[in-house]
Design brief:
Helix content: 55-70%
Number of domains: 2
Number of strands: 5
Shape: elongated
Radius of gyration: 27 Å
Number of helices: 17
Structural class: mainly alpha
Oligomer: single chain
CATH class of the largest domain: Mainly Alpha
CATH topology of the largest domain: Rhomboid-like fold
Strand order of the largest sheet: 1-2-3-4-5
Order of helices and strands: HHEEEHEEHHHHHHHHHHHHHH
Amino acid sequence: MVEQNLEILLDDKNVIVMKLLHYFITEKNYNPIILQGVENEIWLENMDEEYKIIRIVSNYIHNNEQFSFDIFKTKRIMKKIKVKTLSFNINALSIFLDLGDSVDMDTDLKNIDCIKVLEEKDLNKNEIVKSKFPDLLKKMKYSEEGMDLFVKITNDINKHNKSDAEQVEEVFKPKYPMITFILIAINIMMYVLPILFGIYEKELVYLGLNYQAVAAGDYYRILSCAFVHANIIHLLFNCYALFVLGTQLESFVGKVKYLLIYLFSAISGSLMSLVFVRSGISIGASGAIFGLMGSIVYFGYHYRVYLGNIIKSQIIPLIFINLLLGFLLTGIDNFAHIGGLIGGFLITIGLGIKYKSSTFEKVNGLIISFIYIAFLVYMALFYV
């Protein structure tokens, strides 16, 4: 009985399925998607690849009506994945292992490519495979056969999944948010100590962001203003926001990157304010805090399998609500908020997300970040 079950398990179709799974999971870092009510097909996703979705369909489809229904079902599921993963566009590749000869696959299907594979050699004839996955056939050749092949593929996939799980656990494991607590302490001291020594008004005058003072050479104000607050409510609100957002982001990206994101966002917010606000004094940590929100959005996009719902339902609405209030209420430097938000997002691209960002992405992110800052400096201080 065991030998009969093994023979059924290791028929030609299932061997192709196992080899394809091995390739896409261990070589291309695709992850299985658990779907309710879906039978005889396997869904894999990798949002960093051109084909974000790979479908391996072993169900027998013998006519165009069944094929059309399969495509309809696929598009419906893709829409749900698109919403869940905050993706603007999703391309899928469907690999059919049991497709009838009468089925017409030449229909133009938006965002879905289909290939028919009855035997391994069919992969070598397919133009999509040759152009997008040129090493696929080579990677599907094994010296093992039968049960040995099954054991090898299973062990390799388990090892890969274990490694991925360890990486995710490392990134999301809570860490002590030392930098966040230090920043909160600095903000509190910069408010309390000047009041105790009777120099609070002087602090506003000498440390606040003022266009005329910065243009005259007080460039330190671009950063110092982020540690000065107007009143106790202003201070407590920003410290609370810093605690909520900062403890999470610092744990996700690490202390050094987190501090760089905070300072870069504060500077970016101040420069944006100087571009559009030429009178009065601007103070507060909110520009830097908006930068943390921008950074969390970028981080959450890369780990959207875990944070997609939170980013969509909490962080993005929070950003829009606060920006809207900034435009509706007086006394709020909303340009500093916008500048900080953009700066936090851009510098996070440059610093990279662990296990997700490529060197190419980080280099481009750093280049764009410094071009952005240089442009703000020019517009704020040199453009008349």
